[in-house]
Structure to design on (1029 residues):
C-alpha cells in the first residue's frame, strides 16, 4: 500500500514537473551575417516583409510607393507592407519577433529606437550596402544622414524625418503689437513676447508646450551641448547622460518661471492636450514638429493664421541647431536570406530617389531626405503653397553639422526621455529645484544605461 | 461510504485523477512561475529580454537601494490605508442602514450594488472624466463653492487620493453585499432583548451588530488589503503611476520596470515581485496574528 | 422588526437617499453623458442634463475601436474560463468531498495556496512563457493560465460537504456509481452553488486588465477592457464618446448584478460568514 502511495505521489509530481518544465527561455541567437549581399543575390522572386507605423494619409502615400516599387520590380521583388501600430507598438513587436525568430526583412523604427537597433545585431548597416554598390549617399540631407550614423557609417536608411519648429499664432501676434516676421529666437525673447501678449489679452497664454522630453533634447542641441557622453554616443557607446550644463538648467528654470508668472500654461505630458491648446487659440506660441503643420492649418482655418519660426535657441550666443526626428528603415540581417536582404535594400534605395522622396514629402509633410527632391517641380509647388514649411527647409539647411546636432545615440533613450519628463514635471508642479531635478534624472539615467550596456554583449 | 480494499485503491486513483486537471494548471501557471520568479530575479537580460547571465543578488540590492523604493512603499501603504478602511466603514454604514425592511429596500440594495457592475477599466475611465480639471463635475462642485479648480490627477498632493476615491467607490458594492450577508446572520432576538432594555439604534449597532460581525469585517479587511496591494488598472488608466511616481505602488513599479517604455528588465522586475510577495505575506500574517484575536467567534 | 421612532426612520431614509445620490452619480453620468454631444459635455460649467440627445457617440465608439470584435473576445475568453473552471472545480470538489484522496490535506492546502499567491507577483514568468511559445496575441494566452482556479473548488467543496448523507446512501443502494451520482443527483441539486461559482468566475475573467494588456497587442485581439483603455487614451477631447463605450461595456455585468444578485451574494460571501 505504501509503495502504491509513493508511486502515485511521484507520478503526480513528475507530471507536474514535466509540464511545468516547458517554460524555459530560448538561448541567444547565433550571430547572423551582417555583411551586405550584392545585386547578384536576387536570382529568384523574393517577398520582402516590411513593418511600419504609418496611418491615415501617411499610410496611403506609403502604400502608393510600395505599389509603384512592386510593379517596377514585377516578378523579382514584392514588398509586403503591414501596419503594426504606433512606433512604440512596432518596436515592442519587433523585440518579440526577435525572440520568436520571426522578424521582418525591413522595419521602420523611430528615432529614439536607433541606439537600440544599432546595438541589437539584428540589422545590416545601410552603409554596408552602399559600399558594396559603390553608391554615393551625398544626396541625403547631411543633418539627417548624421543622425542615423555611427562614426561615419550610415546604420539605417532615413525615411520620414521631421524637424521641430516654433509655431506662432499670427493673428494674436499682430493684435499684441508684435511683428510675426520678427519671431523670438531665444527663450528670453519668447518670454518678452509672451508678456506683451498677456498684457494685450491677445491670447490667454503667451506660450505653451507639452512636457515632452524631445524638446529638452532639441534645446540641448540648440545650445550646442551634448545630451550624453562619448560625443553623444557617436564614437563609442555612451555610459552617462550630460545634463549638467547651466544652459540645460536654464531651460527648466525658464519654463518654471513662465508657468509661475502665468505666461505659459502647463497642459501636462500629452502632446494632444498641448496641440489642442494651440488649435483653440489659448496659447500664441507653441513648440511642435513640422509634422503637425497640416493639422494646425486645418484647425485654425477661419480662426487665426498659423506661422512658423525656427526652433528657439537657449541663449542668443548659441551656435547649435535642432535635431531631426521621425523614423528610419532598418534592414534585417539574421534569419533572412541574401535575396530578402537585397530586396529590402533595393526598396530603401527606391525611396530616396528624388521623385519618390518628393512624392512622400508632398503627400505627408515629412521632410524630404533627398536634397534633390526639393528641386522637383511637385515639391517646389507644394512649398510655394505652404510657405510655413519654408522655415523647416531653411532651418535644416542652416543647421551646423557636428556632434550636438547629431543627437544622442542611446539604446535606452525612451526610458531616459521619461526621466527627463519626470524632472520637468517635478519642477513645474512640485517646486523641485531645476538643477537638483536634472541631477536626479541624470543619476537615474546612469543606472539605466549601465544596465543596458551590460545587456549588450 | 464503506468500500472494500480493491475499491479503495480505485477510489484513491479516481480521486487523484479528478484533481489532476486543476493541479496541472496550477503547476504550470502558478507554482512553477513562482519558482521562476525567484530564478529570474537573479538574472540579467540581453537586449531582447532573454536571461543571459547570472547576477546573484545584484537585482535585490538595486531594488532595496533604489531611491524610489522608500517612496514606492510609502505610496503602497498610503493607498491601502486610503482605500481599505474608508471603504469598509462606508459599506458598514450602508449595510446597517439597509438591514431592516424599508419601502423600496430591494431597489436601494440593487442601486448600491451597481458599482460592482463596473470593471476596473470602466470605473477608472468614468472617474477620469469626473475629475477632468477642465470639464469634470468634481471641479464644477469645487469652483461653485468658491475654491480654485484642482488638478486632481496631475497634482502630487491629490493624485493618490483621487485614485483612492475611485477604488472606494468600486468596492462599495462588494463590501456592502458581504456585510449585509454577515449582518443577516445575527439573531434578531438579540435586538429584541436590547430594545426591551432600552437601547437605541446606534447603541444596538455598536454593541451588538458590530461585534457579532467581526468575522465578516476581518474577512473584508484581509481580502480588501490583498486586492489593494494588487491594484493595477486604476493606476494605469488614471495616472500611469505619476505625477513623478506619486502614485506608483509596488505592482505599478513592477510594470514600469519590466514593461513600460520598451523596458525588458525582467530580472529587476522579478526581484520587485518577490518584494511584493513578501509584503503580501507579511501583511496577511500580521492581520491574522493581530487582528484575528479581536474577532469574536460564536 | 420595528425600526424605532418616526424621526429615526426619516433620518435613516434621508441618509440613504443622500448616499444613494452620491454613489449613483457616476452611473447617472455614464448614461447621461453618453448621449450628450461634445458641446454639451465639454462645456464649462458642465451641464448635468443633455440639451440635445445624440447617439453619435455610440456610432463614434464603433469607429474608434473594433468594439464588436472586442466584445466577442471578452465573452469568448470569459466563457471559456468559466466553463473550464467549473468543470475543474466540480471534479476536484467532488474528490475532496466524497473520495479518499491520498494526502488529501496536503492537496487541499495546495488548492488554498492558489488563492493566496498574488497573480501580479508571478506575471513576468507567465508573460515570458507566452512570448517564448509564440502565444502572444492569442486566445490561448488569455485563457490558459485561468483554466482552473481554487475559488470554485473551495466553494463547491463546502457545498458538497453539506449534501444530505441520506441521498448519497440512497444512490449507492440503487447501484449508482460516482458518475451517475454526480451527474444525475448532485449537480442538479447544487445549482445555486454552481451558479455562484459561474457568475463569480465570469465576472473576474470579464474584469481582467493587467494580463490582457500585457499579452495582446492588436486591437482585434484585445478584450473590451483594453478597448476601453484605448478609447480613453484616444478620445480625451470627447468624454461623451468614452462614456458611450463604458455604457456598452456595462450591459452584461449590469444585467448580472441586477438579476443574479442572490447567486452573486452567495459567491461573494463564501468564507466571509461563519
Amino acid at each position: 500500500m505504501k509503495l502504491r502511495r509513493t508511486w502515485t505521489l511521484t507520478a503526480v509530481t513528475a507530471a507536474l514537473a514535466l509540464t511545468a518544465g516547458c517554460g524555459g527561455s530560448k538561448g541567444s541567437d547565433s550571430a547572423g551575417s551582417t555583411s551586405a549581399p550584392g545585386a547578384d543575390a536576387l536570382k529568384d522572386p523574393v517577398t520582402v516583409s516590411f513593418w511600419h507605423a504609418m496611418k491615415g494619409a501617411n499610410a496611403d502615400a506609403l502604400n502608393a510607393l510600395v505599389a509603384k516599387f512592386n510593379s517596377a520590380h514585377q516578378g523579382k521583388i514584392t514588398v509586403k507592407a503591414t501596419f503594426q501600430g504606433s512606433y512604440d507598438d512596432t518596436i515592442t513587436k519587433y523585440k518579440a519577433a526577435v525572440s520568436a525568430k520571426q522578424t521582418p526583412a525591413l522595419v521602420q523604427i523611430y528615432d529614439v529606437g536607433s541606439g537600440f537597433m544599432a546595438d541589437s545585431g539584428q540589422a545590416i548597416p545601410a552603409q554596408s550596402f552602399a559600399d558594396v554598390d559603390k553608391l554615393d549617399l551625398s544626396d541625403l540631407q547631411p543633418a539627417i544622414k548624421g543622425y542615423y550614423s555611427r562614426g561615419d557609417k550610415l546604420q539605417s536608411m532615413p525615411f520620414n524625418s521631421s524637424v521641430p519648429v516654433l509655431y506662432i499664432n499670427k493673428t494674436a501676434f499682430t493684435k499684441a503689437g508684435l511683428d510675426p516676421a520678427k519671431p523670438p529666437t531665444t527663450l528670453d525673447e519668447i518670454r518678452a513676447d509672451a508678456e506683451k501678449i498677456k498684457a494685450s489679452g491677445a491670447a490667454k497664454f503667451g506660450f505653451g508646450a507639452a512636457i515632452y522630453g524631445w524638446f529638452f533634447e532639441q534645446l540641448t542641441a540648440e545650445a550646442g551641448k551634448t545630451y550624453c557622453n562619448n560625443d553623444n554616443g557617436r564614437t563609442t557607446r555612451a555610459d552617462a547622460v550630460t545634463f549638467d550644463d547651466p544652459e540645460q538648467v536654464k531651460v527648466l528654470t525658464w519654463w518654471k518661471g513662465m508657468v509661475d508668472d502665468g505666461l505659459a500654461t502647463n497642459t501636462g505630458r500629452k502632446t494632444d492636450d498641448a496641440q489642442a491648446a494651440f488649435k483653440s487659440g489659448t496659447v500664441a506660441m507653441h513648440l511642435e514638429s513640422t509634422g503637425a503643420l497640416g493639422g494646425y492649418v486645418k484647425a485654425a482655418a477661419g480662426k487665426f493664421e498659423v506661422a512658423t519660426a525656427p526652433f528657439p535657441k537657449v541663449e542668443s550666443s548659441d551656435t547649435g541647431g535642432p535635431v531631426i526626428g521621425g523614423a528610419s528603415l532598418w534592414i534585417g540581417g539574421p534569419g533572412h536570406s541574401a535575396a530578402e536582404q537585397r530586396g529590402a535594400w533595393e526598396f530603401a534605395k527606391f525611396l530616396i530617389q528624388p521623385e519618390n522622396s518628393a512624392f512622400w514629402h508632398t503627400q505627408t509633410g515629412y521632410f524630404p531626405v533627398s536634397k534633390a527632391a526639393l528641386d522637383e517641380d511637385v515639391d517646389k509647388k507644394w512649398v510655394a503653397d505652404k510657405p510655413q514649411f519654408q522655415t523647416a527647409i531653411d532651418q535644416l539647411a542652416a543647421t551646423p553639422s557636428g556632434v550636438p546636432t547629431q543627437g544622442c545615440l542611446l539604446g535606452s533613450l525612451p526610458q531616459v526621455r521619461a526621466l527627463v519628463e519626470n524632472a520637468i514635471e517635478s519642477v513645474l508642479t512640485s517646486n523641485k529645484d531645476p538643477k537638483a531635478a536634472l541631477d536626479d534624472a541624470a543619476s537615474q539615467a546612469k543606472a539605466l544605461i549601465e544596465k543596458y550596456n551590460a545587456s549588450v554583449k | 461510504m464503506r468500500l472494500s480494499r480493491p475499491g479503495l485503491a480505485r477510489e484513491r486513483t479516481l480521486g487523484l485523477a479528478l484533481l489532476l486537471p486543476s493541479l496541472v494548471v496550477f503547476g504550470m501557471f502558478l507554482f512553477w512561475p513562482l519558482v521562476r520568479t525567484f530564478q529570474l530575479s537573479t538574472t540579467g537580460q540581453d537586449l531582447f529580454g532573454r536571461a543571459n547571465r547570472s547576477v546573484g543578488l545584484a537585482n535585490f540590492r538595486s531594488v532595496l537601494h533604489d531611491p524610489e523604493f522608500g517612496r514606492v512603499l510609502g505610496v503602497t501603504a498610503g493607498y491601502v490605508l486610503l482605500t481599505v478602511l474608508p471603504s469598509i466603514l462606508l459599506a458598514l454604514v450602508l449595510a446597517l442602514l439597509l438591514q431592516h425592511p424599508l419601502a423600496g429596500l430591494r431597489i436601494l440594495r440593487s442601486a448600491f450594488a451597481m458599482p460592482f457592475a463596473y470593471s476596473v477599466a470602466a470605473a477608472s475611465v468614468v472617474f477620469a472624466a469626473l475629475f477632468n480639471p477642465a470639464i469634470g463635475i468634481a471641479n464644477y462642485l469645487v469652483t461653485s463653492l468658491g475654491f480654485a479648480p484642482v488638478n486632481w490627477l496631475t497634482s502630487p498632493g491629490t493624485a493618490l487620493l483621487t485614485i483612492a476615491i475611485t477604488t472606494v467607490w468600486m468596492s462599495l458594492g462588494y463590501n456592502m453585499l458581504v456585510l449585509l450577508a454577515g449582518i443577516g446572520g445575527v439573531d434578531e432576538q438579540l435586538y429584541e432583548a436590547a430594545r426591551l432594555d432600552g437601547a437605541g439604534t446606534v447603541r444596538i449597532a455598536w454593541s451588538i451588530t458590530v461585534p457579532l460581525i467581526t468575522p465578516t469585517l476581518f474577512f473584508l479587511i484581509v481580502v480588501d488589503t490583498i486586492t489593494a496591494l494588487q491594484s493595477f488598472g486604476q493606476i494605469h488608466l488614471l495616472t500611469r503611476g505619476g505625477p513623478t511616481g506619486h502614485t506608483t505602488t509596488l505592482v505599478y513599479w513592477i510594470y514600469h520596470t519590466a514593461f513600460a517604455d520598451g523596458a525588458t528588465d525582467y530580472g529587476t522586475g522579478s526581484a520587485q515581485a518577490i518584494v511584493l510577495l513578501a509584503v503580501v505575506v507579511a501583511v496577511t500574517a500580521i492581520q491574522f496574528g493581530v487582528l484575528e484575536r479581536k474577532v469574536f467567534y460564536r | 422588526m420595528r425600526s424605532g421612532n418616526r424621526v429615526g426612520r426619516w433620518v435613516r431614509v434621508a441618509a440613504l437617499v443622500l448616499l444613494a445620490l452620491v454613489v449613483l452619480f457616476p452611473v447617472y453620468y455614464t448614461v447621461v453623458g453618453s448621449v450628450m454631444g461634445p458641446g454639451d459635455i465639454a462645456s464649462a460649467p458642465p451641464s448635468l442634463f443633455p440639451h440635445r440627445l445624440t447617439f453619435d457617440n455610440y456610432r463614434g465608439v464603433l469607429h474608434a475601436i473594433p468594439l464588436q470584435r472586442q466584445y466577442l473576445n471578452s465573452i469568448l475568453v470569459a466563457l471559456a474560463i468559466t466553463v473550464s473552471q467549473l468543470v475543474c472545480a466540480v471534479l476536484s470538489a467532488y474528490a475532496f468531498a466524497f473520495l479518499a484522496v491520498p494526502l488529501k490535506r496536503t492537496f487541499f492546502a495546495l488548492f488554498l495556496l492558489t488563492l493566496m499567491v498574488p497573480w501580479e507577483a508571478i506575471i513576468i514568468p507567465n508573460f515570458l512563457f507566452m512570448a517564448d511559445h509564440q502565444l502572444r496575441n492569442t486566445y490561448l494566452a488569455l485563457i490558459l493560465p485561468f483554466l482552473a482556479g481554487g475559488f470554485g473548488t473551495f466553494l463547491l467543496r463546502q457545498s458538497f460537504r453539506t449534501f444530505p448523507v441520506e441521498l448519497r446512501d440512497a444512490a449507492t443502494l440503487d447501484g449508482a456509481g460516482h458518475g451517475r451520482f454526480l451527474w444525475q443527483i448532485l449537480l442538479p441539486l447544487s445549482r445555486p452553488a454552481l451558479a455562484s461559482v459561474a457568475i463569480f468566475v465570469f465576472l473576474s475573467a470579464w474584469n481582467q486588465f493587467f494580463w490582457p494588456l500585457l499579452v495582446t497587442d492588436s486591437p482585434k485581439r484585445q478584450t473590451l477592457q483594453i478597448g476601453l483603455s484605448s478609447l480613453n487614451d484616444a478620445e480625451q477631447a470627447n468624454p461623451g464618446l468614452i462614456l458611450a463605450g463604458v455604457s456598452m461595456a456595462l450591459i452584461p455585468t449590469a444585467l448580472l448584478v441586477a438579476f443574479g444578485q442572490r447567486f452573486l451574494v452567495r459567491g461573494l460571501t463564501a468564507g466571509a460568514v461563519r
User: Anything to note?
Assistant: The CA atoms of residues 218 and 292 of chain B lie 7 Å apart. The first strand of chain B starts at residue 43 and ends at 45. The mean pLDDT of chain B is 88.
